[in-house]
Amino acid sequence: MSEDILVEVAYALPQKQEILSLKIRSGAVVSEAIERSGILRDFPEIDLASAKVGIYGKQVKLDAVLRDKDRIEIYRPLIADPKEIRRKRAAEGKEMKKEAGDAEAAPT
What pTM does this model have? Predict the structure, then answer.
């Protein structure tokens, strides 16, 4: 007879976070826990075929075997590329410094 384990399924939106606890059979995989949790019913926008998932911040596949007290996290798609945002911010910072330097060098 297999033992049950306790896991959590987490999904967060900017204005709301949902963490559901459930008991599931030992040896269950990530996709089983997500489906059994009911979170897909509460958040129909989640598409498991394309969504990335992880356990405590480390990305895993849907067929990863769960251990007791794992927290499964369902990640939302990125709205913008973080690297591109940093590049843009850095370019804006350089432009502001250049403008400030030009203003100081201008004769009065």
Answer: 0.71
